[in-house]
Design a protein that fits this description.
With 252 residues, this protein is of the alpha/beta class. The protein has a single domain (7-250), classed as TIM Barrel (Alpha-Beta Barrel). The protein has helices spanning 21-34, 46-54, 81-86, 97-102, 107-119, 132-136, 140-151, 179-203, 217-221, 238-245, and strands at residues 7-11, 39-43, 61-64, 91-94, 123-128, 161-165, 206-209, 228-231. The chain has an 8-stranded parallel beta barrel with strand order 1-2-3-4-5-6-7-8, surrounded by 5 helices. The protein starts with 6 loop residues before the first strand and ends in a 7-residue tail after the last helix. The structure holds phosphoenolpyruvate (PEP). Phosphoenolpyruvate binds at residues 11, 166, 171-172, 209-212, 230-234.
Length: 252
């Protein structure tokens, strides 16, 4: 397969009411006029997904922030990957640190959820990242390799899988790792992906996430093996998010 386009993905987390649909419409209007050189994805709260899908936006993929490990059954309050696909999701974020830490999701659970997402035909955006303690103890690479090996299902391809490297200490903190550090971690992720998945491993997009904004996006997106961004806070407003997306206009 050909290399997928870079992806700039917005994770709205537990933010957004119906009035926020205006931001998505505004974003799509920007994208219609600019023909972006990357794919653009918004992962709103589940409550907004159907309304956004019904807008039939040409330039914005819609995804979810999580799914269950099972296809259906007695799981009150949960939502399966199949249901998300059914309402129009193309991508599902799996194993975000706020799920790993806040909901006790370990690599085994992340692997099962990613399998569900891939099986129903969505792309799993599998998140990995070290805590501040692991970072300070210089265990980042060890932690990331272990998460990559255990969280990614064995049938991963460049079509059904994207990796997001998100140092937990960089999320929502305004702190960003050095370019050297991002380069080193992404190179190691690439190496493990190629070892496990051969040619496909070379094409799987690896996103960087953690306090990405319009000021640092160009620097971060220029790093080798950084194939896009997973953006939290700066994805909530169309103007801010579009300024990050526009960074790709400056690349060949
Ligand atoms: C995130 O939650 O995935 C994230 C990267 O958040 P922020 O951009 O706000 O740091």
């Amino acid at each position: 397969m050909i290399r997928p386009k870079p992806l700039v993905a917005g994770n709205w987390k537990m933010n957004g009411l119906r009035a926020s649909l205006n931001e998505i419409i505004k974003l799509n209007d920007f994208l219609v006029r600019s023909a972006p050189k990357c794919d653009v994805l918004i992962c709103p709260p589940v409550t907004l997904i159907s309304s956004i899908v019904q807008l039939n936006l040409e330039h914005v993929f819609i995804g979810s922030q999580d799914c269950h490990t099972n296809t259906n059954g007695a799981h009150t309050g949960d939502i399966s990957a199949e249901m998300l696909r059914d309402i129009g999701c193309s991508h599902i974020i799996i194993g975000h640190s706020e799920r790993r830490v806040g909901h006790g999701e370990d690599n085994k659970i992340v692997n099962k959820k990613a399998t569900q997402a891939q099986t129903v035909g969505t792309t799993a955006i599998i998140c990995v990242g070290e805590t501040i303690h692991e970072y300070e103890a210089k265990k980042t690479l060890e932690v990331i390799v272990s998460q990559i090996n255990s969280s990614i299902p064995s049938h991963a391809t460049a079509e059904n899988t994207i990796i997001a490297y998100e140092p937990i200490w960089a999320i929502g903190s305004g702190k960003v790792p050095t370019v050297g550090s991002v380069k080193e971690v992404h190179a190691v992720i690439r190496k493990v992906l190629v070892e496990r998945f051969g040619n496909d491993g070379d094409k799987i997009n690896i996103l960087y996430g953690g306090s990405v904004n319009a000021s640092n996006a160009h620097t971060l997106m220029s790093v080798v093996n950084v194939n896009g961004a997973l953006v939290g806070g700066a994805s909530l407003k169309a103007d801010d998010f579009f300024n990050i997306i526009s960074v790709y206009d400056q690349f060949d």
